[in-house]
Every structure is written in C-alpha cells, then in structure tokens.
Design a protein that fits this description.
- It is built from nine helices and no strands.
- With 186 residues, the protein is mostly helical.
- It folds into two domains: 44 residues, no CATH class; 109 residues, AhpD-like (Up-down Bundle).
- Helix 4 packs parallel to helix 7 and helix 7 crosses helix 8.
C-alpha cells in the first residue's frame, strides 16, 4: 500500500510542535510517531481525539495495563493495522507482561488458544465478537461480568472502538511501520 497522507515533516513549526507534545512526550531515540504527525494535520480533530486516548492509556483508567494492551493489540491485529500493533507491542508489550509468543498470538491465535488465561480468553473473545458482530452474546456478557465491573466493561468497549478508529486512520493513510516497531509475525 502506498502512503496516502504524508505525516508532517520534522522539525515542526511551533503550533504543530505544541500539538504533537500533547500526543507524545519526547522518547530518546524515537522520532514523534507518524500517526500523530498525520492526526495533527487536522488540528480540531486532533485536539478532540487526544483526551480520550490520554484517558485510556493513563492513570485514570480503571483497567490494568495488561488488559488494555491485550484489547489494543487484538483490535489492531483484527483490523490488520500492523502500524499501531507494532508501536504498542514494541513500546508496551514486555512492560505489560507479555512474552513474545503471546504478542504473536494476538495476531495468529483464537480465543481458545491455550496460551491465554481464562481472563485473557474472555478479552480475546470480547474483541473478536465486537469486531465481527458489533455486540456480545449473553454468555460472553456473563463471562465479562466475572472479571470486570460495568464501569470497566464500558471502558473496554470504548477502548476497542477507539483503536478501531486509530487503525482505520493508520490503514487509510497508508502509514509505514516505524523502523523500531514490531512487525506482524509470519
């Protein structure tokens, strides 16, 4: 796929640099993400999209990091978004407690793969169900209720939807994976 929306070139003017700092703090050795340099091409969209993403990845979220990252990675994998999947798995995969085989399984395995715990199986089934049908069955809802509160299930659903949107943007824009990011397993 060809690049369709070119990320803003570095260095940025002061206005765009300020917008970009909201999305991504400086990380030594890593340039600001192409995704963020695409999003700030539309300042109003960027400004309104950022707070939700910051909440979902920040300390205010009621979800544990591993749950959040599993939902993000599976959602991006199901959307075929190697760009965002690769960024998250490279930056947060090990920090979230995922072994390399688990990271690969977010792309290659189903919910019934024995690599997953019962809790993780429920999350994979949840993401897959939302991706495939836009809802969950009563049985899956019962399983979700064993692990997460109603407040948390709302966060999980919005998290999956948000990363569908991010995947759609990255895929539509034709973003090439960051050089340091992981790639989908063969």
């Amino acid at each position: 796929m060809a690049l369709r929306i070119k990320p803003l070139e570095l260095p940025l003017d002061d206005e765009h640099a300020s917008m970009l700092r909201k999305w991504m703090p400086a990380i030594p050795g890593i340039d600001p993400l192409a995704l963020f340099r695409v999003l700030i091409r539309n300042p109003k969209l960027s400004e309104n999209l950022h707070p939700l993403g910051a909440f979902q990845l920040g300390k205010e979220s009621s979800l544990p990091l591993q749950d959040r990252e599993l939902v993000i990675n599976r959602t991006c994998a199901r959307c075929g978004c190697e760009y965002e999947w690769g960024v998250h798995t490279a930056l947060l995969g090990a920090h979230a407690g995922f072994e390399p085989t688990m990271i690969a399984a977010t792309v290659k395995s189903n919910a019934d793969d024995p690599i997953w715990s019962a809790r993780q199986t429920c999350l994979i089934a949840f993401v897959d169900s939302l991706h495939d049908t836009g809802t969950v069955t009563d049985e899956l809802w019962r399983q979700l209720s064993e692990y997460w509160t109603e407040e948390q299930t709302l966060e999980l659903a919005v998290l999956a939807g948000y990363y569908h949107a991010i995947s759609f943007v990255a895929n539509m824009a034709g973003l090439i994976p960051e050089t340091w990011a992981q790639r989908f397993p063969e």
